[in-house]
Each structure stands twice: as C-alpha cells, then as structure tokens.
Amino acid sequence: MLEVKVISFLWLIxxxxxxxxxxxxxxxxxxxxxxVVIIGCVTAIGGGTLRDILLGNYPLxxxxxxxxxxxxxxxxxxxxxxxxxxxxxxxxxxxxxAIGLAxxxxxxxxKTLMLGFSPEIAIVMGVVTGVFGGVIxxxxxxxxxxxxxxxxxxxVALLTASAYVAMKFNGVPEWINxxxxxxxxxxxxxxxxxxxxxxxxxxxxxxxxxxx
Amino acid sequence: MLEVKVISFLWLIxxxxxxxxxxxxxxxxxxxxxxVVIIGCVTAIGGGTLRDILLGNYPLxxxxxxxxxxxxxxxxxxxxxxxxxxxxxxxxxxxxxAIGLAxxxxxxxxKTLMLGFSPEIAIVMGVVTGVFGGVIxxxxxxxxxxxxxxxxxxxVALLTASAYVAMKFNGVPEWINxxxxxxxxxxxxxxxxxxxxxxxxxxxxxxxxxxx
Amino acid sequence: MLEVKVISFLWLIxxxxxxxxxxxxxxxxxxxxxxVVIIGCVTAIGGGTLRDILLGNYPLxxxxxxxxxxxxxxxxxxxxxxxxxxxxxxxxxxxxxAIGLAxxxxxxxxKTLMLGFSPEIAIVMGVVTGVFGGVIxxxxxxxxxxxxxxxxxxxVALLTASAYVAMKFNGVPEWINxxxxxxxxxxxxxxxxxxxxxxxxxxxxxxxxxxx
Lengths: 212, 212, 212
Prior knowledge:
The structure is a homotrimer.
Chain A: H1 2-28, H2 33-55, H3 61-64, H4 67-86, H5 90-114, H6 119-140, H7 153-169, H8 174-194
C-alpha cells in the first residue's frame, strides 16, 4: 500500500539523518573512521533497538535485515565526505533531522500498539524510539545528552506519539493519522528551533547534598 | 498477605526515593523538566529493568503496569517543587534512600530466586537491582558512578541480598527474613554514612600504560 | 575435542585479561575495591552479554555458570595486588589483551553462526563481542571509548571475525580456521601497536552546528 511505502521511505530518511548526526558527533571527538561508523549505526538504530529489547520483541529489525546496517554505515561515511559543505546545508539538515524525529516517534508508537501493548506504553515507546538513539550517541561521546537540555526534542516526541495514539483510538484512518502526526511533529520541532522555545529548566546547585 | 503489602509499600517508597535522587541529579546538570522526568524514571526503574533483561524475564513490570511510571514521573516533578526545602530534609531523604536500597536489593534477590535461578545469581541480581538505577543515572548525567566511590553503597546491596538468600536457604520464615534483612541493610547504610565508612580505594595512576 | 578445550582456554585468558583492563581503568578513577570488581566483571562479560541480548539468546552464559563471575572477580582483585609490578609487565599484558580481542571476535562470530544467523550478522556480533566490553568499561569510567580512537582495535575485531566467517563458508576445517584467525588477529593487533598504525580520523569542529 502507498501509505506503507511512504512511511518506510520516511523511516529510511530518518535513520540516515540520525546516522549523519552520529557521524558529526563522532567527528567532534576526532574519532577514527571506524568509530564514526559505529556511532552512526548506534545513533540510527539505538532507539528502536532499546524499544524492542524493553518489549522483548525479537528478532531485532537490523538483525533480520542486515541491509539497513550497510546503508547506515554508508551514510556515516558519506557524512565524513560532505562535512565541509554541511555548514551551508545546516537548515536542510535540521529539517531532515526533524522528519526523522517525527517518523521515529510515530513508528515507535505504531509498532508497540501492533504488538498489543497499552496506549500509554505506545506513547512511552514512541519517545524511546524518537530520542534514545541520540541519548546513546551522546553517552558514547561522553556528553550530557542534549535532548534533556535543548529545544523540546523529547517533548516533540511525546506529543507526536500522543497525537498518533489519540487519533488511532478515535478511529481516524491510518493514512490521515500518519499525515497529521507527521506534519504536526515536524512543524512543532521546526518552530521550536526557529523561536528557541524551551521548557523551564530545573537548576539545583545545593552542593553539600550527598544523597545519591 | 500482610507481608506482601508491607514489601510492596516499601518498594513503592524505594522507587519514589530513587526518582527523587534522579531528579536532583538532573537539576545539578540544569536539565529541563522533561529531562528531569526521564532521569527520574530511569533511576527508579533502571536497576529492575536491567535485571529482568539480563534474566530474559518478560514482560517488564512497568510495561505491564504503567501506573508505576506515572507515579515516578509525578515524584520527579514533586522533587522540583520541594527542592528548595530539601536541604532541611536531607537526613530524612538519606533515610528514605537507604530504605530504597535495602528493599531493592532484597526484592531483586527474591524475584530471581522465584524465577528458579541459583542463589549466587540471586545475590548478583540483588546488587544489580539495588545499585544500577543509580549507575545509569550517573552515566546519563555524565559522571563517574558515585556508587563505586562512596560509603559502601554497593557493599550494602551485596550483604543485604546475601543475608536474605542465606536465611531463605536456612528455612527462616519469609516474614522474619524480610524484616531482618531490611533492618540490617538500612542500619548498615545509615551507619556507613554516619561514620563515613568506606572500602579501600585502588589508586592506579601509571599514565603511560596504554593497554585497553 | 582438543579444539574446544583450546578455544575455551583462550576464552578464559581473554575474559581474565579484560577483567584486568577493567580493574586498571577503575584504579585510574580511584574507585573502591567493590567498584574495581564491578568494572572488571562488566568489562569481561559486557561484550558477550550485549551480543546475547541483541540476539535474544537466553540464558546468558554467566548466569548459567556463575563460576565465570567468581573467576573474573578474583582476576580483578589480583590485578589490584599486582598493579605495582604491571609497568614491568606491560608488554606481556598487551599480548594477553590482544589474544583476548582475537578470541572474543572469533567466538562471537562462531556462536552467532551456530544460532543460525547470517554471516554478516556473525561479523557484526564478532565486533560487538570483541570491543563492547571495553566500550561499556569506558562509559562507566566516564571516558570517550578508547576503541574509537586507538590502534585499530575495532578494525582488528572486524577483520578477524570476517576472516573466520569467510573461511568457515569456504569449507576450511574448524581447527585450521580457528588457528589462522587467531594468529591473524593477534599479529595484526600487535603490529598495529608496534608500528602505531591507525585509521584516518574525522575531525569536525564546526561549532555552530546545532543539529543533534
């Protein structure tokens, strides 16, 4: 069906965009080319892999179909080649990343519902799929994960997955649901970047607290 | 049975205390509110989740019963609100945290035995359940995990889980076993903090070693 | 069979060597003895554990046979005792570590093939088994994982696993295959250290990029 092809196509754009963010993060830490490929792969498949491990849903997609890994590795290496011109393409790149975020959040929720889990867990897994690739990337690069600090990244995942699940349970046809969720998630993310929207921060600097 | 209710109640106190330590750690890194909630959740459920993944024990508790996640998220946000008075409550907080540590260690061992694993693995899983939530929290906040450095945290988990397993295999009734293990773990931890007990440290600073 | 005994013996050397690298890394962060043991265990079993979780292959080896954990804990503590003389043994130590890397990569690929997965996934899992113990160790010690930066570590794992899988699919008898792969991986790693071979690095320092 056309809708399956479109969502698969967008998902492919999403993992390739995530691979590119991973490769760039590796470059900032001056990793070698193999490190770039590994970070690219982990960023692209990390969120979905964590979701499937948490759900006990085996076999993992990239283990069943190894071509995804090869495409992701290629995207990571391509990123190294085109990095010098990336600064001129940074708006395009942010847009691709925003599509990836929205698609991952929707697909994460969709798959979780298909496996028979509750709508609340579907929303949680939408967030896991959408943001944890980037979290694992930042951990491997020894940084505080950016998504906890910047531009509503995780909130976009939460609201996009929630919108998808809410429409699904209210009988909205899948095709319309996917379109609306995707446009909503993408637009929300781009507006958050454009207008520097952010959530209130919690700043707790009482140093002598020794609870852990 | 009363004992089930008591241990469930203490477990709930434990996960809420862990959520609070997670929220405070997030505040030290000036995360936004969503980051606070995610770190709170991961700290509270991370140890038990890692245990169940290692044991292949599905479905995960918080996936079957999503209310735990909602309670943990609420505890994380509550922590943000009461943070200004936390410094006056730090002793109470340390006591709650110590209850959580003891309860998690005991429940981790108990569940592992119920699933039919060996007593040694039950002890290992008691430690995993007791301390790995905090380890994952510290990794996400980009710090060397505190539990490897401070006040016998991990040793308390090890000895508490060992005491529970040893009494279980020597026919001590569950009710008495739970009570003794809990009082032992809690007291040991509070004494370790009070008297600054610590284990010998291994300080290896030979820099030119390039093995990895 | 003799070949099974030899590979088991080398695997044991491998996990003990990995435990030692973990203990030394913990010592550099001045962890206490319990932290040393935990980091030693995670380094030694982390790669194989991650592989089996990704493959959904339960029960985990060290859960079925807890004696491995005890041996690893002992190796970690032994490392603390012999650390003062380690600088005189650093070449021996690098050689043991290189054996471990080669053996882990081969065993990782071998087990994955035995479970019926594709040759490509067997190679990926050889890399995971060979290097991710060290990656998890570096994350727990709050460092950028060394393997992404130094001396072809990950590339050795990739090529060693690839050699093993290629010979396997070309009918080379297991015994000869294991020997050649092992000698190849070990020699390649030692030469890379000796001649400071390294891969090209990707250095991307364009700071104003705010994609993540």
